[in-house]
User: What shape does this take?
Amino acid sequence: MASESCAFDIIGARYLRDVQPGELVTLGEHGLESRIVDGGQRRAFCVFEYIYFARPDSRMNDRVLQVARSRMGEILWREAPVEADLVIAVPDSGNPAARGLARAAGLPQDDGFVKNRYVARTFIQPGQELRKHGLRLKFNPLPEVIAGKRLVVVDDSIVRGNTTRQIVQMLRDAGAAEIHMRISAPPVKHPCHYGIDMSTREEMIAHGRTTEQVAAELGCDSLHYLSLEGVYEAVGATRATHCDACFTGEYPLAGSDAAAGKYSLEDGADARGQAPSLIGA
Ligand code: SF4
Assistant: This one.
């Protein structure tokens, strides 16, 4: 049993079926047993799995996420085209959507950054200063590719905005003529109550700001997010069976509402300090 289907590919195992919400599957002396231990609430699969969390070679809702993310890029271009010379991704998170967007736009795509493979991911480093330093170590922009170009820069999400702000500055320093950020997810405005420790509402750059205000904060020439409808179109799913609360504030589980903090469903929440974030951007 695994949380993602890519684990089966690695060991040559075969995917049989999903464990259903409320289902308890056990492997014991009587073999595989299943029983439903909870029911009644509607299905609410995390839509952020398709966008960011899951590995791109995993299969969810009958499609490989690499392909679904590429489709998000195509739809993003349809929703927000712009005059530009070159498409680049924020590696690696923006890679599939950048490919789809470039294909839909008929624009060339290149590597604007070389990613340093030898440093840890920025989200596991505590504190803003370390994170800032970590990003400089992580991405090296290529002036030979970027200079004088009107860039479409694709990433999969923005949470706090610190990473994106620094990326925009690095691209400016490397001589980019224009920077048009395209994000293959809607603005993240609300905390997750279901186990993803992404930030408090106050830390989220899109919370309480218009897209134009966020663009000004980031220092880019334009900014567009993929619509929620675009996400669902890309993955071939509907809101009725998914959770998208971090985008909409509409929490599927009764008792957790938009005004509550990210620890609202945890016992002793008030006693907890700030946990390190899982989404660093
Ligand atoms: S709030 Fe966002 S991250 Fe949390 S389960 Fe819902 S969609 Fe996923």
